[in-house]
Each structure stands twice: as C-alpha cells, then as structure tokens.
Design the sequence.
C-alpha cells in the first residue's frame, strides 16, 4: 500500500470528510493571499488558540491551545486552502467578536467557559446546516474549517498523540483481532 492509499484509508476510518482533503493528496501548493498573511501577525495565533480551546478544551488531557493549534491553523490556511476558503475563513474569524457581542453582549475573550461552549455549539449547528445545503462552488463554512483544523492539529501534535491517544514509537506486528477494552484510548496512527 502506498502513502496515498494509506491516507485515504485513514480518512475513511476516521469517519469524516476533511475539508481540504486534497492537501493530503496534492501537498501544500496553494499561493497565499496578502490577507492570509495577517493570520500570523499580532495576537491572531493566540486568538485562534482560544477558539480552538473552546472546541477542544483541556480536561484530564491537554487542550488544543497546549498542543499549539493556534500556530498550526494559519499555516494550513495559508499553504493548503483554496482562495475562496481562505477568504471565508478570514471573514469568519473577523466576525467572531461581533457574533459574541450579539449573542452575549461581550467579546469572545470575555466569555466564561460555559458561554464559550454555548457559542461554539451554536456556531457548529449553523455550520452543519450550511455545509449540508451548500453548492460545490460555495466556500466552506468558517466554523467547519476551524473545527476540522483544530482536531487535525491536535491529534497530529505530539501532545495529542502521546497524551490523548495511545502511542507506540515503533509498533510491532499488526493484529486485527487485538482485544479492545471499554474505555481505552484509540491508537495514534
């Protein structure tokens, strides 16, 4: 099995469609717009880390912020996403505080943990509805991209693989009949 087939199989096993899946098959080859460069400036990576932390908060395992997801997201958006998705992401990111003020009368950074959870849950419902009704030529929803990049960034980080999943640096033979015990962590692949 070659790398391309293995990655396709992993995406199938995970059970979800990854927006920008072509990046796994084509590599990161898209040119970045000038606007996307702003994702690397100022407090934007920290803000992205806060957003990602609301999606995947710290529990008994580290959260998205500790895994460095705020620094991962700009790189992926810049290097791997189509221009229409880059623009949609930037518009969505720029509208987060306005949306928080509309829903909670305060900016996103000022929200409590419960309010942040409610905020991302509301955004997630909207994104799912949008994604189910969008046409092929439409851009993807900001929150869908943010959520998928958060999960990808976390579970491909050292923190995610070693602390949230079971990790074996040099695995042994494959045993398709390995017994599963309820409550065990998934394997890092």
Sequence:
């Amino acid at each position: 099995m070659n790398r391309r087939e293995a990655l396709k199989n992993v995406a199938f096993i995970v059970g979800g469609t990854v927006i920008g899946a072509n990046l796994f098959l084509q590599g990161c080859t898209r040119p970045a717009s000038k606007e996307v460069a702003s994702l690397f400036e100022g407090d934007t990576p920290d803000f992205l880390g806060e957003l990602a932390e609301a999606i995947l908060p710290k529990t008994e395992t580290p959260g998205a912020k500790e895994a460095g997801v705020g620094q991962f997201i700009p790189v992926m958006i810049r290097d791997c996403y189509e221009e229409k998705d880059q623009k949609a992401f930037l518009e969505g990111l720029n509208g987060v505080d306005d949306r928080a003020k509309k829903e909670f009368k305060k900016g996103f950074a000022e929200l409590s943990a419960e309010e942040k959870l409610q905020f991302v849950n509301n955004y997630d419902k909207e994104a799912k509805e949008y994604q189910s009704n969008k046409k092929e030529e439409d851009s993807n929803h900001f929150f869908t991209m943010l959520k998928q990049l958060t999960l990808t960034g976390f579970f491909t980080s050292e923190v995610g693989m070693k602390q949230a999943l079971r990790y074996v640096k040099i695995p042994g033979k494959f045993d398709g009949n390995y017994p599963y015990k309820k409550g065990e962590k998934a394997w890092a692949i």
